[in-house]
Amino acid sequence: MGCAVNGRSPPSWTNARQRYRDRSPPRKTPCPACGQRWKPAQTLRARSHVVDASLRCAGPRCLERSVATALLCRLRGSWPDWCTGVALEPFRVHAWVEAEGNGVGEGDRELALFTTTMRVSRSAPSEPEE
User: Around Cβ 24, how many Cβ atoms within 10 Å?
Assistant: First the structure.
């Protein structure tokens, strides 16, 4: 049993989580199946927010940065392409986000060195079978 503050007992974690959910703004994004592709400027803004919020993502950790950027865009109702690639001589791997077919926040010369090995993009909604 916790101590009383101002004659009241401290709130439980369940109540704190409920209060946090009640304060968060309502989501104004479409459902994941309806996500729309964002323009490169919007995706770059999301990437900048990720880099500003996390020292880990601001450094050389491209996987964390690209996944966080893609997820942030997804939460905001868009669907950029998430890509991974490999370069030889010297061997290295890289992960990045693309909007309208261009790497966002990445140098074109650097990305030209990589061969895309995996691309995760929004699939078109499937037609109902009759």
Answer: 7
Predicted confidence (pLDDT) per residue in 72-115, tens digit: 998 988 889 999 999 998 999 999 999 988 899 988 888 999 99
What's 48-80 look like in SS3? HHHHHHCHHHHCCCHHHHHHHHHHHHHHCCECC
In three-state form (DSSP H/G/I as H, E/B as E, the rest C), the secondary structure along 2-13 is CCCECCECCCCH
- With 0.85 as the threshold, say if the pTM is over it: no
Give me the phi and psi of 7, to 5 degrees please: 80, 0
Residues contacting 45, CB < 8 A, separation 6+:
none
Q: Are strands 115-120 and 81-87 parallel, antiparallel or unpaired?
A: antiparallel
CA angle, 86 then 64 then 69, to 5°: 100
